[in-house]
C-alpha cells in the first residue's frame, strides 16, 4: 500500500465494514425476540449476544479486513490480541472501558502483523511455529505491551473522549447538525466510517436495568436508552424520501430522448435507497458532476438530523436508514411516525432544489452529460478495449479487469460496502468511461496508485469475481492486445480503433502473424512471433513456452538477465516470478505457441537452431 497515512486510514474504514455487516442480523434477532413482537427470549438473547461482544467482533473483523488475503489466521490473532490486551488493562485499572476501540486497535495490530510475518521462517527446531502460526503468538506478545501502555495512559484519553462525546450527545440539534454535515462530506474520502464508528459505538453511555454499561448511539438505542437515536433518526427522511426524489428530479431534467436510457439506472438507485438506505450510488452520480448539489445535500442531511433532534424523534437502525429498518425498529422508536411527514417535506425540498439548480446552472447530472462517443472511442483506441461482439457474453469481472488496465495492472483488489478499492501499477491505464459503460457510478483516484470504483451493494461480489478471474488467468479476456506498439505503427492502430468502434473486432483478432509482418515493419518488435526468440535471450535460454488461459503465452527462461526487457516492455507482459513471464496475445496464443515450439531444441525443433534476428 502507498505510504500515505491518509490511505491507511481509508483502509481502516474499509476494514470496519466487515464487523458492521453482522449488525443487521443481530438487530433483527434482538427485535423479533422482544415482548411486543414474538416475545421469544432465546431469539432476543441470540441477538443480544452479538451486541454484548462487539469489541471481540471488531477485533476479528478488522484483523481479517486488514490482512492482504483476508486470511482467517489474522482473525484468530485479532481475538487473541483483544483478550490479552483487556486482561492486562483490567489488572492495572479495572475501571477502564475502551469499548469497541480496544477491539479495533487489536484488530489493526493483528492485521498488520499478519501481513508482515505470515511468511516468516524460523530455525529448524522452531519451524512448527513459523509462517502463519507465528502471527497469533507475536500478536499476543505485542498486545501485552499495548495492554500495559493503555492501562497507564488510557484514563486521560478516555476522559477526553467522554468530554467530546458528552458535548456531541448533549449539544442537541447543533451536535446532530454537525455530525450530519460531516458524515456526508467525509463520504467522498471513505473516512465517514471512522466518524460513524465513534458516534454509533463509542460516544455516550447507558446502563440498562440489571445490565452492564453500553456505549454508542446505536448500541444504546437497542439497549433501551430513550435518548439514543440522535445520530441515526435524521437519515430516514433523507434516504427514504429525499434522495429518491432527487433521482426523480434528475430524470425529469434529462432530455426527453435520453430519459429512457437513464430511467433504469435512476429507478434502481432510488429503490435501493428507499428500501435499504444504501445511497452511495445516487450520491456519486452527481457528487463530481454537480458538486453544488452535493453541498446542498450535505446541508440538508445535517438539517434533517437537527430537526429530528429538536422534535424529540428517536429512531434507530442496524444497517442503514431504509424502509426495512424503519419497519423492523419502529416499535422501539419515540415519535417514529414523524419521519413520514418530515420525509414527504424532504422529498418536495429535494425535488424542487435539484430541478432548480440543474436547470439554472445546466449541471451535468445523469442523462445530461456531454455525448461521450468520441471520448469512448479514444479510450478504446489508446487502452485497447473492445466492446463485446453481438451475442458475446463477456463476464463482468473480465470487463472490469480490462477497463482497469488488465490483470497485470492490478496489484490489490478489494472492496467495501459499495466500492472496489484497488491498487494499480499505472493509473493512466484505467479507463473511467469504460468503467461507467459497464455500470460503475464513479471513479476516484487516491494517492499515486490507489483507485476506488463506486458500484453499489454488489461491490464485494464483483471483487471476488475479479480475484477469481485473475487467479484462473482469465483477467485479460476482455482486452484486445496488439503485438506491435500502437503508437509506432499505423496499421495496428487502425485495427484497434476499428475494434473499438465494433466494425473490425473479429478481423483484428484473426490477422495471421505473417500478414501482420507484411503490414508493418516499424514496431519495436516484429509482429512475427518467431522473431521474439532473440528478445527472450535466444532459443537456448527458453526452458518452456506454452499457451495458458487461452490468451497468454507463458515463458520460462533459464537466465532472466539475458531477456531484452526494454523491447519486451512494448508487449503486454507480466513477470510472475524471477524467471517466468506471461505475454497477453489474445486468441492467437495457441497458434503462436505451436509455431515457437518448432524452433525450440527442447520441444522437437532442430538442435541449436538460431533464432531469426529481430
TrEMBL record:
GO biological process: N-acetylglucosamine transport; phosphoenolpyruvate-dependent sugar phosphotransferase system
CDD domains, per database record: PTS_IIB_glc
Membrane topology (UniProt): Multi-pass membrane protein
Residues in PTS EIIB type-1 domain copies: 394-476
GO terms for cellular component: organelle inner membrane; plasma membrane
Compartments, record wording: Cell membrane
Species this protein is from: Paraburkholderia antibiotica
Sequence intervals crossing the membrane: 12-30, 42-66, 73-90, 96-114, 134-154, 166-186, 198-216, 228-248, 260-278, 284-306, 338-358
Residues of the PTS EIIC type-1 domain: 3-370
PANTHER family recorded: CYTOCHROME C-TYPE SYNTHESIS PROTEIN AND PTS TRANSMEMBRANE COMPONENT (PTHR30009), PTS SYSTEM N-ACETYLGLUCOSAMINE-SPECIFIC EIICBA COMPONENT (PTHR30009:SF4)
Signal peptide: none
Keywords: Cell membrane, Kinase, Membrane, Phosphotransferase system, Sugar transport, Transferase, Transmembrane, Transmembrane helix, Transport
Designated name of the protein: PTS transporter subunit EIIC
Main location: membrane
Coiled coil: none
